[in-house]
Design a protein that fits this description.
single chain; 123 residues; mainly alpha; 5 helices; 0% strand
Length: 123
Amino acid sequence: MVTNELTIYLAAAALVVLTVESCAKLLNRDSFSIALAVYVTVFAGYFVNPFLNPKQYDYIPPFLISQSYGQVLIFLIAFRFFMRVAVRWVDSQDVVDVKPALRCSETANAHSHRDRDANGDAW
C-alpha cells in the first residue's frame, strides 16, 4: 500500500508547506498563481490518484513507490527554487518599449514604463 512509505509523508508535508506559502504570497499579491496551480496538479496526480485507484498500485514494489515519492519531493523543492530564480530573472529584464514616441515626449519628472504599468496607467 502507498501509505506504508515514509517518503509519501515527507512529500505530502513539503507539498502542504509550499501550498500554504504560495497561498499566503498570493493573498499578499507577492506571487503568481502558477506555483499554486502546479502544487494542486501534483496533489491531484500523486496524492489523490493512489487512493482513488489503489488496485493499480498493488503490483508495484514498495521500493519503487518510495523512490517515486522521493522524486516528487525533489521536484517540489527544485520547482520552488527555480520558480524564485525565474521570477527574479523576469523582474530584472528591461521591457522593450513598444511606443518609442512616448519616450521623446516624456519630461524629466515622468515615470518609467514600469511605474506606469504598476499604477495601471494606459499606454
